[in-house]
Design a protein that fits this description.
It contains 6 helices and 8 strands; from the N terminus they run E-E-E-H-H-E-E-E-H-E-E-H-H-H. It has about 240 residues and is α+β, with helices and mostly antiparallel strands. Helix 1 runs antiparallel to helix 3 (about 100-120) and helix 4 packs across helix 6.
């Protein structure tokens, strides 16, 4: 399902959780007709709405409750004229999970539900399911190492180690597929650094009011230097 969502990386001093994203359009098709005879012809838009509702059943009736996943319909596109029933409708959105097995299940069920629902309304459905990012999974040894470095810099009380994983997709996940490592966050503050024109309070990435806190630059630079120094010392 097509998406313009980007990875979310602005969390306070956190080691990364795991996230996975996929995308691709889902299209329900029928022939276009004048809406005065709408009871004769089944519109693709109506069918697409039924498919969108049916897809949510995957979250509650197919996957296990303990397996985290999010299926979001973020786009519905159909037709141009108010008096013409469109010949097709397209749904777009994202699916996010913490495991490939759950992702496989959701992909399979999405295709089954879309095809069967479309057939029930005398339409056809095409599903394009594009996998973009694998889960971001930190390795235990490297995570403890990175946390130790940051604790040495700012103190144990300022480093959060018990957090929930996030559903944001991350490029670093590909690196973790090849080598052990740790993806961590450095806090951007609670918003006091932001100009009044940006609004008050903290602000996540991918927001028009986001303003980077320059005061954390020295902390970030120190972390990387100490990380290299400690790693190099342990290998010598």
């Amino acid at each position: 399902m097509n998406s313009v969502l980007k990875p979310t990386t602005a969390r306070s001093r956190y080691p990364s959780g795991a996230a996975e994203r996929l995308a691709g359009p889902l299209t329900a098709k029928q022939l276009a007709h004048f809406d005065a005879a709408g009871w004769v012809f089944v519109p693709g838009f109506f069918t697409a709405m039924q498919i969108g509702t049916g897809l949510q059943s995957i979250m509650t009736r197919n996957k296990r409750p303990i397996d985290a996943a999010v299926l979001s319909i973020t786009q519905i596109k159909a037709g141009h004229a108010t008096n013409v029933i469109p010949d097709f409708a397209t749904l777009g959105g994202t699916v996010r999970t913490f495991s490939v097995d759950v992702l496989d299940l959701i992909e399979t069920r999405m295709k089954e539900i879309a095809t069967a629902t479309a057939a029930a309304y005398r339409c056809t459905a095409e599903v394009e399911f594009v996998r973009n990012y694998p889960p971001t999974v930190n390795t235990e040894k490297e995570t403890h190492f990175a946390l130790g470095v940051m604790q040495d810099i700012v103190g144990m009380d300022k480093v959060e180690t018990n957090i929930d994983p996030t559903m944001g997709a991350e490029d670093f996940s590909y690196m973790l597929l090849e080598k052990p490592g740790c993806y961590a966050y450095i806090g951007n503050g609670v918003g006091a650094h932001r100009e009044h024109g940006h609004g008050l309070g903290p602000c996540m990435l991918h927001n028009s009011s986001y303003d980077f806190n320059d005061e954390v630059l020295s902390l970030g630079a120190t972390y990387w230097v100490r990380l290299v120094q400690k790693w190099s010392a342990g290998r010598s």
